[in-house]
């Protein structure tokens, strides 16, 4: 984790809201612990990769996302971690968007979930959807 954060700090653009310190490390560890308790059969590398990805992607500007995903790919070679769908949350977000006559774009629900993860984990209220 610290290697990824050192590389990201050196290679990603400078943004005031990027945090690669102890607070970010603690948030990733909390999320990884929750993921592992929720799915004890998952490989620890997969759990850590997913926690790192899901905790950090929401805060990155668009241009930094491919670089960060490349760093994760270099640190976890050959490990493919598919996105997890949260049916209740995703369906609720889609219903609100459609109900308010917004145009539903494919990336909107994913971004809302990323935002939710970042806010709840950083505020210490993380709870996985069942």
Would you give an account of this structure?
This protein has 6 helices and no strands. With 130 residues, it is mainly alpha-helical. It has a single domain, classed as Helicase, Ruva Protein, domain 3 (Orthogonal Bundle), CATH 1.10.8.710. Helix 2 packs across helix 3. It is globular.
Summarize the structure.
With 130 residues, the chain is an all-alpha fold. It is built from six helices and no strands.
The number of helices is 6
Report the biggest beta sheet as strand number plus sense, adding barrel if it closes: none
Helix content: 55-70%
List SSEs in N-to-C order: HHHHHH
Query: How many independent structural domains?
Result: 1
Average residue-wise pLDDT: 79
Element layout with pairings:
Layout (H helix, E strand, L loop, with lengths): L1 H10 L10 H17 L5 H13 L8 H11 L11 H13 L6 H17 L8
Helix pairs in contact: 1-4, 2-3, 5-6
Notable characteristics:
mainly alpha, 6 helices, disordered C terminus, Helicase, Ruva Protein, domain 3, 130 residues
């Amino acid at each position: 984790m610290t290697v990824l954060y050192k590389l990201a700090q050196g290679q990603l653009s400078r943004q005031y809201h990027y945090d690669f310190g102890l607070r970010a490390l603690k948030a990733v560890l909390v999320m990884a612990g929750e993921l592992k308790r929720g799915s004890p059969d998952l490989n620890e590398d997969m759990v850590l990769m997913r926690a790192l990805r899901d905790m950090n992607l929401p805060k990155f500007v668009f241009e930094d996302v491919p670089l960060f995903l490349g760093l994760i790919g270099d640190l976890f070679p050959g490990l493919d971690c598919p996105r997890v769908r949260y049916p209740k949350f995703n369906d609720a977000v889609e219903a609100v968007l459609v109900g308010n006559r917004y145009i539903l774009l494919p990336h909107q629900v994913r971004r809302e979930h990323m935002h939710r993860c970042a806010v709840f984990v950083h505020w210490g209220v993380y709870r996985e959807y069942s």
